[in-house]
């Protein structure tokens, strides 16, 4: 089983910053993240995972936003950790492949082969406005992403394995025949190459992706080595899992070449009652106006003015939104017969990801069920509050998984890609 | 006196990688840079300084190239250092202001106020070809750089000083009236803002620049807080110093608001003879074909085929080249009556920067002379070989400067900007 620590400020629950278990003054404090990294490494977790956006999202009035940029943060954490993977989200829509390929190669060197890239295409309109652009259509973003990956992969291959000969006596540092231009000339990019950094321990970072659209799934089947997904029910997760794994052979890949990791936010108590009590405390700190705005953001429709104790109203179709997440939210509201207020509370913990409140054993049971029934190769753990929620998971749930033989007790593999059971030579 | 450690692979001398004092296998090894950072901090130096280019420059066959990217490297070093400034070179020509402003704000948070940005406009043609562009003309690059700085400064100001109120009881995290869009709409950029990261300890990074053209000097006078320059003689350095300081009042700035730091490569021996012996050893390891290519690169003219033991031939004017550096090289060749071989040897140590071979006392004498005679506010130290050359400077020259009362014995100031005697509120 693969387990990532998905870090977010002082916790994934949108009211975490108001809870006494957190210190919301620490979201830009590197020592906070150093502490989180140490806890995750103590638990032998696979990776630290950082989401990202390129605009100030949501309502900063009511949530602790404006934290550190992922690549600088994970580089900083690379030198204070030894084993854990470092997965940073970077957009293909508002970046250049030369910069991105180079920075990940650099992080991979710095961390000794622990870099991962979560590839996103940035659906937000406000993100486009920070780069003087109109938001490109969904299909254009994915087309650009594909070409971006072709260029990045070529750049990572532009230094051959034996390029550096370092022959001091004869004054030959590199074998020039192993370092070549890529001369890419496509629809979105024209890049000469080679990269100006030597081949890194993994050759390229672990490639991670999270899109659940048709375009997203095809992209993942072609490029991704790990997929992060939001799934609420075992059945939906099994369907997603089978669907994605089925797509791999068309790209010459086996089902083992891609790991599927649903997000889970574990609210942990020593008794179930204690866990539900913590869940209730967090729920009571929710600011309804903020929650309504978040819900409007997810659905791509303004819900202001609808009664909080009424149902989710019918909404016009939103072709620019994240369809899979919209469907997930609608299904959830319908399945559980939720009011707007209830729906806001259900989403506050994980923005559509699964929230599990219970004892360590109960949470381990749930993870085991999905893992052993074709729904997941592991999980992206989204602690509701930080650092305590991560410490509870590592100190209480991880040992339970280890006792059951489901999770490693020591780090294995030199690089992140090896830990995911992937070959180093797998550059397509 | 301000002293930076200008780090470059295993040393600034182009043959350093072949010398037994270095280990040229380490240029992508983070432990090498951690060691350099610790040495520099032991010597109470102001900053680590990293140059950058966006293409594989020179002839990788004959030099140890392809090292780490500056922003990821300095972020990694931020968590293993406490006091030293971290100055990364980033181009305004091939980047977007939102990304750059954000990454430096993040590095400034991570380092507790130690970030600096060396602003360059990337003159190379091969750099343009990695971004699908033609190399823009000199004046276009500087125009873009000015607008880039206007946008970046506005983004750094987009979170007011008291924006984060963190009122957990009432659920108010930030005072929205202190966080605003910048709505920049210019010739090169259109950026809405605000930045998606909170105001950093310094407000913005220390701004550093190195252009010596007319455009470059005006840009520095308007924006820069430190200027890095190549000067071979006291007279030239004094002229540059006076010229640049004279330009400041037009921008409402005082001469103290900008520090001028010529580059110096110190070749240190316990006797003068030992220093000259080391210089000779390095010279003997120079590969003439590589040196000729470097010289051609600096002059922007192909010198292949000219006899090494003949003089520098007359060359056609090169309007796209770095005029101040071309002039410096021509003056040097003429002043010292150098052959091509001799000129290559003189440039191998510092690519046009001053090389000083001597005892610690002799080197301290030279630095003192420039510092006390209106030629420098400090120096960018370019060790010929690393880590030993930096250790020698820190352990032998720094104490000599300290005894003379020219250099600090303890770190002062909380932030890099304070250490440079600059106000925190100085955002224009």
TrEMBL record, chains A, B:
Enzyme class: oxidoreductase
EC number: 1.-.-.-
Family: Belongs to the NtaA/SnaA/DszA monooxygenase family.
InterPro entries: Diverse_substr_monoxygenases, Luciferase-like_dom, Luciferase-like_sf, NTA_MOA
Protein name listed in UniProt: LLM class flavin-dependent oxidoreductase
Species this chain originates from: Nonomuraea typhae
Record's keyword terms, sorted: Flavoprotein, FMN, Monooxygenase, Oxidoreductase
Gene3D superfamilies found in the cross-reference section: Luciferase-like domain (3.20.20.30)
Single Gene Ontology MF annotation: oxidoreductase activity
Top-rank lineage group of the source organism: Bacteria
Residue stretches making up the Luciferase-like domain: 24-375
